[in-house]
Amino acid sequence: MDSKRSAGVPPAVAGASRPRFGTVTIRDRGRLPHWEIDAGLYFVTFRLADSLPISVLEQFRSERESILATAAQLGRELSADEKQRIARLFSTKIERHLDAGSGSCVLARPKIAGLVADAIRHFDVKRYRLLAWCVMPNHVHVAVKLSPGQELAAVVHAWKSFTAKQVNRLLRRSGPLWGREYYDHLIRDGIQLDRILRYITNNPIKAGLKDWVWVWGQDAPTTAGETPALRR
């Protein structure tokens, strides 16, 4: 994998901007529902375990479960509007607090941010194609197109499991590093894709982080390939 790719349009973007859509599988692990498709294109967010106050999480879960319960009582799947309501719940109640820098924010440490970034890039091309990613102080955003046969849950688990062990070793600590849940959105068209790519690459600026290098993608103002911490 070439660690010196610029922030220009990555090879993955050209094909991923017009994804082929198939049958969507709804996977519910008893927590967040996940809409999946083979070789799908996703916007994924996972966060540090201490990044959100319990009150924020409880309110988010309560409102989300109310939407899910309504659909279940009517014996139907979630409507497009209900899916959007859940997405808005995440963007208004979760992302706002994450960008405020809650918790220990250990990902702000260059060595740890570099470790997480390298883990995300490790199987690029082999198991998926990265379109954009950003390691923020207390959370991570990734836009990724899975290779055929790959499952999103397995990919995210690999990122979280490997980095948790490595970061805990560096910090000489134990216990959970990441929050139990992750948040994903199945990208269904080029308009959504463009919006999400801009969101990921502009997230550091939106959060008030200056000269933040742990970001890569089509619209990134800087590229993580330029920092010695990511060179191999």
Write the layout of secondary structure elements.
Elements: H1 11-16, E1 25-28, E2 33-36, E3 41-47, H2 54-73, H3 80-99, H4 110-122, E4 128-135, E5 139-146, H5 152-171, E6 183-186, H6 190-206, E7 215-217
Helix pairs in contact: 2-3, 4-5
Give structural notes.
- There is one protein chain.
- By secondary structure, the chain is of the alpha+beta class.
- The protein has one domain: Transposase IS200-like (Alpha-Beta Plaits), CATH 3.30.70.
- Helix content is 41%, strand content 16%.
- It contains 6 helices and 7 strands, in the order αβββαααββαβαβ.
- The protein has helices at 11-16, 54-73, 80-99, 110-122, 152-171, 190-206; strands spanning 25-28, 33-36, 41-47, 128-135, 139-146, 183-186, 215-217.
- The strands form 2 sheets. Strands 6-3-5-4-7 form a 5-stranded antiparallel beta sheet, sandwiched between helices.
- A hairpin with a 3-residue loop joins strand 4 (128-135) and strand 5.
- Helix 2 (54-73) packs antiparallel against helix 3.
- The protein is globular, with a radius of gyration of 17 Å.
- The chain starts with 10 loop residues before the first helix and ends in a 15-residue tail after the last strand.
- Mean pLDDT is 79; it is low at 1-35 and 225-232.
